[in-house]
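Lab meeting notes turned into a lecture example. A postdoc, R.K., suggested we walk through two folding results consecutively so the class can see how the record format repeats. The first protein's sequence and structure tokens come next.
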Amino acid sequence: MSEQQKPKSELDSLIIAYPCPIKWESMKGDERKRFCDQCSMQVINISDMSTTEANEYLRKTRDAENSCVKFYLRSDGTIKTDNCPSFLKPIKRKIVYLNKVISITMAVSLSWLTSLWKDGANAKEHRFIQLTPVETLNVVGRPAPTDISTLIEKLLFTGSIGDLPYDLREKFNQSLSDTRGVDLKIVEELKENYQKKKLEDKYFYTCLLEMLMRIKSFEDDATLDKDLLKVETLRLKLMNDKLKNAESRVAQKKKTGITASIQDFMSLATITPSLAAYKHSYPDKARTWQLPLSCGKSDTVVASREMLTRAMNCIQKADPEKSAVKSLKDDLTRLLAIKDKEKNNSKK
């Protein structure tokens, strides 16, 4: 496998869903692990780990509910790690401490000397010497779970829900590069753009990204619940639109377009783990939904039996030669069977 074909490491693909406002210095603990009083969580300094250790830690905690990390982000967008052999680390820490003392002393001395420089013309031209260029940014926050990372990749790189306006794409990428996070203000701009252009699918997926990020924050539950219900109402409308489009194709005796519409329906009906895990009562808050159904993966499919039946009626009229048609038929058959079982159990 060539260098270009190698998949990104956990460090390279790390995205922060929620940047923590609490400073690392205010937390109690050591250089590897500290406790945050605000969210009652342990915060792990992955920059104190070797590259191998950091990648392994992020892999194991990727979708953990209580994961929070701290790291140094270099100006080139890479995360700094500590690959110094363990037996040399005590010596290294002493050297780092001495360097800090020397840097502070020299900075104070330069400031004092500059204050003695009374010549007006020369003073205007003078600039402080930057002893140590700011190479890193100290970042603390909650890593984005897989569903947020996947959605960001879809918004940036997938044509079906991608095609961002150039200026917003640049802002998006710049935010990821500079802070390893996505500024919610940029997401808001994206929503407004798609809303003006009446691109409902793209608008929905951008709203979904915003909701997934807000779930990771310390936001008031009541406000979040209210906005989530708006998003789920839009989800239901789009699901119905996809079914209507497929039904229209069937009525016109057109085999093309049916499969794509049902695939879009199933995609919209799939609830990612972060949403499914949001409180124990979610998604029951959206009363238009029935009980969640296992989709065979870590995701959850939510749709009424009536909707699933409509989807099955359409896909049976699609081109049977397409492999996607058989897969959709199998999924819908299994989901309808689960629905029937749930209905029978409720009667007992």
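The second example is placed directly after the first for contrast:
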Amino acid sequence: MIKCDLVTGNIEWKFDAIRSFSSSEEMLVTSNNVIFNTGNSIYAVSKNDGELEWQKNINVSSVEKCAAGNTLYVLSNRFSDYSGLAAYDLASGIQQWQMDHTLESIYFHSNRIFVEGLTGLLIINNANSTLTEEPSHITEFALDQNYPNPFNMNTTIQYRVHKNANVNITIYNMLGQKIITLISKAHSPGMYQTTWDGLNNKNQMVSSGLYFYQINIDGEIKTKSMILVK
């Protein structure tokens, strides 16, 4: 990939990792980087000097991506290990969250992201990555497996609420002792997510080990396990 001056035609920089680029591949220009999708990798290259900022080896059959704020959203119908939407920090390439859904298209409007999938319309708050889903498509409450698991710093927990209800999500250790309550508030029907950073209710980092996260929706309870590794 070569960047040339439009007036003189002089080569400003060359990125050898991408030797050819066709219309079927995608390029996104941000304020600081040029983002390339080659079908099996995503490259973030500095606009100033052509240096590689970060790279993600993601095997996809197709991907649509949009930049909003400091986040890069990658939509794919066939990731190597999941199908759905992933959010990456534009500067570092660190993954912020992902959605394991079969998705078809993505639209940006104001502070929200609208994603169409087989289960209906998903609406994502662009400011805090809160996920909601068209209530008519949610018939029962669910607690998804946290991602990543095992985890080191942060992990994401997705859950669905099927009715107007009070929702509590609590972390317990192997002894059944309460570590921290992540969520305790009223919800309307929808799909949501929260994160745990390994801290207890005293803002102290807990030790490595097996933990349990439990959702309680008006007395209906589901529990799953996760592993914290330092």
